[in-house]
Amino acid sequence: MSSTTTWQGQIDLQFRLEGEKTILQKSYAQAPLKIQRPFYPEPNLCHLVILHSAGGMVGGDRLSYQINLEPGSEALITTAASAKIYRSTGAFAQQQVVINLDRDAYLEWLPQDTIIFNSALYAQNLRVNLEEGAVFCAWDIVRLGRSARSERFTEGCWQTALEVWKQGQPLRIDRQQITGDQWESLQAAAGQPILGLLVWLGESVGAEMVAKIRALDSQPEFGSGASCGVSAIEGGLVCRYRGDDRQAVQRWFIEIWTLLRQQSRRRSACIPRVWQL
């Protein structure tokens, strides 16, 4: 596809605490990305939904996000629907997200899942900069191949990079690449179509909470051959899923998010309506 027919979408957001309420102080969106009006289903914390009006990405498309939270501000950002990455004849579709959390800011970055079609080429990068007291919660759920249609991810490439820095020092660096010829490898996806990652960073998680979260994976049915992992790290928590059931991993992540929210923010989970669980 020629460069004249690719999308170069952009989002620029600035959140500010005014009194006890977080407001969207600045917003800019360039097609195909759109920002829905902020809303407040829970006091003070700003909820925002991002919409991708083109319906999916092809080779050569690039989406760029710049998100800044000023001191003490709190926000939840999600997406209106699953992201779709279509097959490519050679060029990568790319997504670049840069998030800056100032002192005591709190962000939940909880996009809906990404479906990567067979023969797609996709690279996603997320860079987060935390100041003192800032907390970042995020998840990423990826489906390799349209497995609901029995499509297998036998060609193509998915690259992902997560970098979280706290006051200029690396807190978490996580990179992964899976190609179609590696998909069935035990070191990659082991032939499973669904991969999930949840991180809670900037605030330590105690042993008692880690034990509660580890006990959750014995409750739901995760699908055939699924594996789950929970790791406490310095300054946070990392949870991983590999299996074949998107709804199961989403339920698991929501339960983890609920526990962490209750302990850290004294808030119960507030499920965005667009998730349609």
Labels describing this entry:
single chain; seven-stranded mixed β-sheet; 277 residues; mainly beta
- Overall, the morphology is globular
Order of helices and strands: EEEEEEEEEEEEEEEHEEH
The pLDDT mean sits at: 92
Biggest pleated sheet? 10 strands, mixed
Strand content: over 45%
Structural class: mainly beta
Total number of strands: 17
Distance between the termini: 36 Å
Task: Report the helical percentage.
Answer: 10-25%
Radius of gyration from the alpha-carbon trace, in angstroms: 18 Å
Count of DSSP-assigned helices: 2
Uncertain segments are: none
Structure description:
The chain contains 2 helices and 17 strands. The protein is mainly beta and 277 residues long. It has a domain at 7-195. The strands form 2 sheets. Strands 3, 4, 6, 7, 9, 10, 12, 15, 16 and 17 form a 10-stranded mixed beta sheet that branches. It has a 7-stranded mixed beta sheet with strand order 2-1-5-8-11-13-14, with no helix packed on it. Helix 1 runs antiparallel to helix 2 (246-265). It is globular. It starts with 7 loop residues before the first strand and ends in a 12-residue tail after the last helix.
